[in-house]
Each structure stands twice: as C-alpha cells, then as structure tokens.
Design a protein that fits this description.
The protein is mainly alpha-helical. The protein has two helices and no strands.
Length: 79
Amino acid sequence: MPSTDTAVQLTLPRLHVGQVLDGLEMLIEQWDATAAWFRTGEIGDVAIRECSDVEEAESIAIYYREIAGEIRRQMEAQG
C-alpha cells in the first residue's frame, strides 16, 4: 500500500484550483466555527462540523490551512 505522504502532481486549470481553494476556505471557516462552539457554546451563521472536542476541530482547521497554503505557494511559484 502506498504511503499517504507520497507526492501527487496534478495539472488543473487555474479556475479549478481557485474552486478547490474556495472549498478549503469554507471548510476552514466551518472548523473554526466548530472550535468556537466547543469553547463558547454559541452557534453563529456558519455550519458546525462533527468531531469530539475543540482540539480535534482546531487540528483539522490547521490541516486544511496547511493544504491551502501549499496550493497557494505552488501557484505563486508558477506565476
């Protein structure tokens, strides 16, 4: 079974990559809202995701930020 850390090279139109980034930003916003809900108990206008605790929600948000950041870095490197 291949490692999950194996790099994959994709070629997509810039518009598609923009849509992927928009989706990641939405997920980040939802995981941040979920973490806030665990901390305060208040629900805002953003969907809350299912997880066990604030640490898990924060960890997932960080993970999606890393993915989005890497995509942006690669796009910038290509001009």
